[in-house]
């Protein structure tokens, strides 16, 4: 295995160029005043151009961040990088309002899911293009370790508005997403956790309830805290035509098992059986009976899922569930918006619960600032704006759920998405992070887990052999990185 390069930070020199003009000091001062009107005049102009929007019935009257955005950034420019899709759409919508308030220009650079982290890493190392990055929290932790993202602790003290209120973030969220190695390295943007979605109309059907009880000897109820792993498999099989020709759906279970997503199906059960990905010493904690049991469970779920599910991505897996051909699906929260859209066969027929086993995979995205950005103040204010109490409401309709307790407490937000109480429960029970939280080598270790699960699913390796191979790869990769 190739050794990982240790990236050194290059100190840049700033040239201060001074010049003498032929104009008098009085003339120069007059020109300066004309080109840079007083802050009060700029603020008046900006406020005249900006009217507080109403989103989901809420008037967002502090998008100016206590006035700290007004009249200070006219003509300045920053570039933000992230993955294409919903994240890019949400950012671009926030950018429109931010630009009106500040007069600044914000460019959003987006890249396909399979390549965006590579693009971001290259730029963070070289510097020059991106001022801020929206990406998964585990990646941010790795870049913080190597000094590629800025420590925002001083920025919070010097530049944050009075009412930003970090204590308002969901319990534990700020510590998980923002704090790392005694620093503030990011601001929470999107809480994420895998949830179990199910067809409410099927579970409420009395005829189906009677048939299930006749076959399994206990009541068919919607999945929840009391549902055991074995019971969940019974339900999956009951709604799969392969096992029950009378099933109203072809598949009892569905999930996104495509590239870089398969590992989460196994991981959702790993912690439920008592295992984990790594311990505090960066040692693999899955080459054990818990890992074997979770692999075998994944194989049984596969028997109830579409045969081509390893070809699925976010859109195609959601389309499968929304076609009405699957009874249940494990997916990230944003799927609910798709299920509720026009044309969905399951519109108004979807409920949600904690994943079977009660130990769901926890995701999460946050905004970080490049350590090499020459515009860190403006980049910080943009990150603050996007994650502020009012600012984050601008992104809710783009599948970016709130991170703040106060917003979940608003009746308008609760009415918009009735699954939010379950989302909060799932976040509270999140047991492991979606991306392996080992600095520097997160991507490499994610690939190991993906391959290991694929080998088991395709019968290329037994669960025991694959887990041993995965653990050996972890040991080698982490050792090569100098972390052990």
From TrEMBL:
Low complexity bias locations: 25-34
Xref: PROSITE patterns: PROKAR_LIPOPROTEIN
Family annotation (Pfam families): SBP_bac_8
Entry-linked InterPro entries: Bact_solute-bd_prot1, SBP
Superkingdom per UniProt: Bacteria
Stretch list, region Disordered: 25-45
Protein's UniProt keywords contain Transport: yes
Signal sequence coordinates: 1-19
Keyword annotations from UniProtKB, A to Z: Signal, Transport
PANTHER family assigned: ABC TRANSPORTER PERIPLASMIC-BINDING PROTEIN YCJN-RELATED, ARABINOSE-BINDING PROTEIN-RELATED
Family designation: Belongs to the bacterial solute-binding protein 1 family.
Protein name: Extracellular solute-binding protein
Source organism (scientific name): Diplocloster modestus
């Amino acid at each position: 295995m190739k050794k990982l390069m240790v990236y050194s930070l290059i100190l840049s020199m700033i040239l201060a160029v001074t010049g003498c003009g032929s104009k008098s000091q009085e003339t120069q001062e007059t020109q300066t005043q004309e080109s840079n009107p007083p802050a009060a005049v700029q603020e008046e102009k900006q406020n005249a151009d900006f009217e507080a929007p109403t989103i989901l019935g809420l008037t967002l009257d502090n998008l100016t961040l206590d006035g700290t955005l007004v009249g200070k950034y006219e003509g300045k420019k920053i570039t933000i990088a992230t993955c294409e899709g919903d994240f890019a759409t949400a950012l671009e919508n926030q950018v429109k309002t931010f630009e009106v308030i500040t007069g600044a220009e914000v460019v959003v650079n987006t890249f396909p899911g399979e390549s965006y982290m590579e693009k971001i890493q290259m730029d963070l190392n070289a510097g020059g293009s991106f001022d801020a990055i929206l990406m998964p929290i585990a990646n941010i932790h790795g870049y913080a370790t190597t000094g590629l993202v800025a420590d925002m602790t001083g920025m919070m003290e010097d530049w944050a508005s009075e009412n930003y209120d970090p204590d308002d973030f969901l319990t534990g969220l700020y510590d998980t997403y923002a704090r790392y190695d005694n620093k503030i390295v990011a601001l929470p943007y999107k809480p994420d956790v895998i949830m179990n979605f199910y067809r409410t109309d099927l579970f409420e059907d009395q005829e189906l309830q009677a048939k299930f009880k006749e076959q399994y000897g206990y009541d068919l109820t919607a999945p929840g805290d009391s549902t055991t792993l074995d019971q969940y498999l019974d339900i999956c099989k009951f709604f799969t035509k392969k096992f029950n020709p009378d099933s109203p759906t072809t598949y009892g279970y569905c999930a996104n098992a495509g590239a870089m997503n398969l590992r989460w199906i196994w991981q959702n059960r790993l912690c439920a059986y008592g295992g984990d990905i790594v311990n505090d010493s960066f040692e693999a904690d899955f080459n054990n009976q818990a890992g074997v049991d979770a692999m075998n469970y994944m194989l049984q779920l596969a028997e109830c899922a579409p045969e081509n599910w390893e070809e699925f991505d976010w859109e195609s897996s959601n389309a499968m569930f929304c076609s009405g051909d699957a009874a249940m699906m494990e997916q990230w929260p944003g799927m609910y918006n798709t299920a509720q859209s026009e044309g969905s066969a399951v519109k108004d027929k979807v409920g949600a619960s904690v994943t079977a086993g009660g130990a769901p995979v926890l995701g999460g995205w946050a905004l970080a600032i490049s350590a090499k950005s020459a515009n860190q103040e403006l980049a910080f204010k943009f990150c603050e704006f996007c994650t502020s109490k009012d600012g984050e409401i601008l992104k809710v309709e783009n599948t970016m759920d709130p991170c703040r307790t106060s917003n979940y407490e608003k009746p308008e937000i609760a009415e918009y998405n009735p699954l939010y109480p379950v989302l909060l429960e799932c976040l509270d029970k999140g047991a492991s992070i979606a991306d392996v939280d080992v600095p520097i080598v997160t991507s490499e270790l994610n690939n190991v887990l993906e391959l290991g699960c694929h080998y088991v699913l395709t019968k290329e390796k037994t669960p025991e052999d694959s887990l041993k191979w995965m653990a050996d790869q972890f040991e080698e990769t982490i050792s090569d990185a100098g972390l052990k």
